[in-house]
Every structure is written in C-alpha cells, then in structure tokens.
Write a structure and sequence with these properties.
Length: 458
C-alpha cells in the first residue's frame, strides 16, 4: 500500500506543470497561490541548528539544550516570519505540515516501537538476545558482525527504521553489559541500516530515484553499488580493526530460546517484506504470549509495559510533529523553491550538473527530513538537468539516492536518529560523530563525481 501511494505521488509530480504552495484559507480550505522565494524562508532551520547543534558544541554538552525546546523556539519563529497570513492561518498551515500522512505514519511506528521495546525488555527478551549474541559471536567480531547484520537486514527489508527498531535495543543491551560506548555501538546499526535503505530494490528511495530518472532498478543498483561498495568495505575494515582488541568477559548462561522468539519474529517477518507497522504489532503480540507463558509478566503487567513504552516515546512524537510543521512553513514560504532556483543557475558541464543534483537533493533533505520526499521533490528537475547535460540516468538516480541517504543519516532531527537515540537513551548529537558509513558514502560519492567514477556510467 505504501508503494502504491508513492507511485501516485510520483505520477502527480510528472503530470503537474507547476508546484503550488497553499497560502490562503477560505472557509477552512487552503487555496493555491504563489509565494515569494527568499533566503529568509530557510532561517527557521538555521535557528534550530544554531540553538541545538552549535550551542551544544560550544558548551560541549549535548543534553544542555533539549531538542523539544530547540524545535519549539524555531517553530514559533517560523510562524512569526510567515507573511501574507493571519496568525490563525499561519498556525493552520503549521498544523497542516504536522498532520502530513508521512509524519503520522512515523508517529504510528514510534508508538508501536516503544510498546515493543519496553515489552521485550520487561519479559527478558533483550537480555536473552544479548546473551545469545555474546555466546555465538566472538568478541573481536562484535562490531563488524553487527554492521554486517544491519547491512543485510536493511537490504532485505528495504527500510532503515525497521532495521534500527530491531537491532538498537539488542546492541544497546550489549553496550550496557560490556561497558562499550553506547553512542558508538548505536551508530554502527544506524550506519548499516542506510546501506539497505540506499540499495534495496524495495526501498522507497530506490523506487523514487529510479522512477523520477527513468531507469531500471537493476541498472541503478549496479551503478549505485559500485559507488558505495568502497565506503562499505572501508567502514567494515575499520570495525574489524577496532574490534581486534575487544575482549568481553561474559558469564555463560543457558540460552532462553523462547524469550528470543519475539526478535526472531520481528526479523523474520521484516525479512519477508511485511509492513513495518505489522511487523511491530506481531512483535508486541509475541512478547505478551512469551511473557505470560514463561511467567515473566501477567496480562496487566504486559499492558503496563506497552503503556510505559508508548509514554516514553512522547518527546519523540512531539519533536516529529514540530519538525513537520516547521519544515512545512519553510516550504510554504518558498525556501525549497529558492534553493532550486539558486542551484540550477550555477550548472556548468556534466560534472557541474551531477554536483547540482547532489546539492539539490541534499538541501531538500535538510528541509524535509525525509529522504524519499526529498527525491520526489527534486527528482523531475534533476531529470531535466541530467538530460540537458548528458548525465547517465543510472548515475543521476544513484546520486539522488546516495546523497539523500547520507544527509538523512546524519541530521539529528531525522526519524532514524531520533528513534535510535530514544531506544538507546542518548542525545541524537552524541551519535553523529560515530556515523562513519553515512559520512563515508557522501565522501566517496563526491569523489565519484570528481573522478568520473564509475566510468561506464559517467
């Protein structure tokens, strides 16, 4: 169903000659008229980044400024600078962005993920899975093993969020028991999750990139794989090297296979391609069955665990709603249109065209915090640029997908980092410095443009 709506959205973009912004309201309905572009439209994003990121770096404390406060201030500022609307209409436009179906879908996933994570923890599923992992995987291969697992799972299920939900609680439990750096361990899973998000045939970003650029998925995969493979091998090599000196003293305990069952169910159903929401529902049900069957919890304690898990996601849900509203006002005020206009005026030659496509999707991703939406937004324009300057459509699709995943993987207000940090009880900023894979694919992809690599597609 999600893929169906994605195709409908893409067809809408193809059939529309103009993209309108909704700026006036009459009888509670917004009517489309053009809005003026300007750098000032992007200023709410700068306010957020300064207040949250820069301030945290200056004081060297990632918990000093709560992310909810940073988004509250930047959201209020976005409402204040919006022109041409009454205060009530500005709030309505903000609310429209917060109520976007993609935002609501993420919130549903957060709710279900919170219920599953807490239920799994309370019945002992996380401890049992950690114990199983430490017994099966040699200490010096823990880092590389989890990176490979995250890459494989994300490639199989096509979603970074699903991979993070499945693996972060386990790796957080291992970090807690072994004394390893929690942020570093969490970043391993997040990085590997974007390997599949970028390459999987069933990933939304792959579907969007190939459809907007008019190329076959298998052709885009071949080109894209050659670009990101060096990055994956470099990061894997580092994890093997970094893990050589790791020696975990772990008391061998009997493996409680029945308590590991909820994770097997989640990974197995995700692997066969079920919707991530349905995967989590099945996981929650299995925690209840296993918990009651083993006497770990009773039915009312299970309900209490789910309630606690959902409540713990409250801050994440608030942040997601405010981010959606603020980014909608940025789009509404012409911020995205301004970026498109400025960057397309600077195109010169094939290499310049590829850099322009990379910059377009990167900045669009910063303004939407959704890599699929960013590709859909700039995809038709990227296709025009590619055709005009002779860029291979397989290369342009790879550039769109790779750079959108790179940006999505490192922004502290993206769904992936938000949910990973919540599951690991960390600040999103504390994870960013360890995100070697997303940063690496950005660097390698940049060099691929500069050096005309791979030559077959350049």
């Amino acid at each position: 169903m999600k893929r169906f709506f994605l195709v409908i959205m893409l067809n809408h973009f193809y059939s529309s000659e103009k993209i309108y912004t909704f700026v006036s309201m009459k009888e509670n309905h917004l009517s489309p008229i053009k809005s003026k572009s300007g750098l000032w439209a992007l200023s709410p994003l700068f306010v957020f980044l300064f207040l949250y990121l820069v301030t945290s770096l200056i004081v060297n404390d990632f918990y000093k400024v709560p992310i909810t406060v940073a988004f509250s201030v930047s959201s209020i500022y976005a409402v204040c600078i919006t022109k041409g609307l009454s205060l009530n209409e500005r709030i309505m436009q903000f609310s429209q962005g917060a109520a976007d179906k993609n935002i609501i879908l993420m919130i549903w996933i957060f709710i279900l993920a919170g219920a599953f994570a807490q239920s799994a923890k309370d019945i002992g599923a996380i401890d049992a899975t950690v114990n199983l992992t430490l017994q099966l995987l040699p200490s010096n291969l823990l880092l590389a093993g989890f990176f490979i697992a995250a890459c494989f799972i994300s490639l199989s299920i096509g979603t970074s969020v699903g991979t993070i939900v499945a693996l972060v609680p386990v790796i957080a439990g291992i970090a807690e028991k072994t004394g390893m750096d929690m942020a570093f361990m969490t970043a391993i899973v997040v990085g590997g999750a974007f390997f599949g998000d970028n390459l999987s045939f069933i990933s939304d970003t792959t579907i969007a990139a190939t459809r907007t650029q008019g190329c076959a998925m298998r052709d885009k995969f071949r080109a894209n794989f050659l670009i990101v493979l060096p990055a994956a091998l470099l990061v894997l090599g580092y994890y093997i090297y970094a893990g050589m000196d790791i020696s975990v003293i772990h008391e061998a305990k009997p493996i409680e296979w029945i308590k590991v069952t909820p994770y097997f169910i989640v990974l197995g159903t995700a692997f066969i391609g079920l919707n991530v929401a349905l995967v989590l529902v099945l996981g929650i049900i299995s925690t209840g069955i296993v918990g009651i069957a083993t006497g770990s919890i009773d039915m009312f304690e299970w309900f209490g665990s789910m309630g606690t898990g959902i409540t713990n996601m409250g801050e994440l849900i608030i942040v997601t709603l405010m981010a959606g509203g603020m980014l909608e006002l940025i789009r509404f005020n012409g911020g995205v249109d301004y970026i498109l206009k400025v960057l397309t005026n600077k195109v010169c030659g094939k290499r310049g065209a590829e850099f322009c496509i990379a910059a377009l999707v990167s900045i669009a991703n910063l303004c939407t915090a959704n890599n699929t939406i960013a590709i859909i937004t700039v995809g038709p324009l990227a296709k025009d640029i590619a055709n005009k300057y002779g860029v291979d459509n397989r290369k342009s699709a790879s550039i769109l997908d790779t750079f959108s995943c790179m940006v999505q993987g490192i922004i502290p207000y993206g769904a992936q980092l938000l949910i990973a940090s919540k599951l690991a009880s960390l600040s999103p900023l504390s994870i960013i410095g360890y995100l070697y894979y997303p940063i690496s694919i950005g660097i390698i992809a940049t060099f691929s443009i500069m050096l005309r690599y791979p030559k077959k597609y350049s």
